[in-house]
Amino acid sequence: MVSNTRGSPVKALLVEDIAVCTFILSTMLHKFNCEIVVVKNGKEAVNLFLDGKKFDIVLCDKDMPIMSGPKAVEKIRALGETGVKIVGVPADDNAMEAFMTAGADVFVHKPMKLETLGTMIQEVINKKNIMV
Questions:
Q1: 71-122 pLDDT tens trace
Q2: In what order do the strands lie in the sheet with 11-15?
Q3: Bond into 111 cis (ω within 30)
Q4: In angstroms, what CA-CA distances link 50 with 37, 46, 57, 73, 106?
Q5: What's the rounded Cα separation, in Å, for the pair 25 and 19?
Q6: First to last CA, the chain
Q7: CA distance 131 to 73
């Protein structure tokens, strides 16, 4: 069970270009009372960080138009965004190395289990509560 009794909701960025995947992952994030922003490619995600937006967790697909997930992760990390938990969530079996090399914290193959997401959200909440 995810518990966030002390702080603000977890701010999640979902970087996904496939509507069905967006729906499923958004539904899962809503179960944990996350505030969710959805973008359809890596460039849109990077632009949010360039605009000063802050997120606690980023769930990122690999193959998207305009900019891939690993490229977006690399650029987000290059901006100095080391405090955000970035999760590579592709359907591609061979994507782990690309995400981890780019700077992702975790790699979870689709379909993601609710329990797996719950554990990651709880880790983010615990980190936020320590910083309060």
A1: 999 999 999 999 999 999 998 878 999 999 999 999 999 999 999 999 999 9
A2: 35-39, 11-15, 57-60, 85-88, 106-107
A3: yes
A4: 15, 6, 16, 13, 23
A5: 10
A6: 21
A7: 24
Which tokens is 2 given? 């995810």
Greatest alpha-carbon pair distance for the chain in Å reads 39
- C-beta neighbour count of 84 within 10 angstroms: 17
> What span, in angstroms and rounded, lies between the C-alpha atoms of 114 and 129?
22
The two tokens of residue 41 are 């490619």
